[in-house]
Amino acid sequence: MELHHLRHSKTLESAGYDSATHTLRLLFRHGGLYDYFDVPGEVYEGLTTSAHPWTEWQQHIKAAYEYERLE
Fold first, then answer.
1. 18 — phi, psi (to 5°)?
2. Which of 19, 15, 21, 20 is nearest to 2 (CA)?
3. Distance between CA atoms of 1 and 69, rounded to whole angstroms?
4. Is the pLDDT of residue 36 over 90?
5. Which segments within the chain are labelled E, that is strand?
6. Which of 2, 7, 67, 68 holds its CA 20 to 30 A away from the CA of 23?
């Protein structure tokens, strides 16, 4: 999965999305790589086009989807 840099965020470094599995992958600037499951494509698009990705993550992703921290 290719990750794309989120230049509008001081906390989120990059995001990627696998449309076949509906998996959102997020890399945080201070460490931590996470996969979020069953995320609709429009949620990923909203995150990557937002002027405030961190706020978008907090309001629409953080508590809404199952996730796993990757090593």
1. -110, 105
2. 15
3. 15
4. yes
5. 4-5, 12-18, 23-28, 33-36, 67-70
6. 7
Q: Which amino acid is at 29?
A: R
Residue 63: both structure tokens together: 């508590």
Domain count for the chain: 1
Closest CA to 13 of 46, 57, 45, 43: 57
Residue 68 CA to its chain's centroid (Å): 12
Predicted confidence (pLDDT) at residue 44 exceeds the cutoff of 90: yes
Residue bearing tokens 């698009």? 45
Domain span at residue 59 reads 4-70
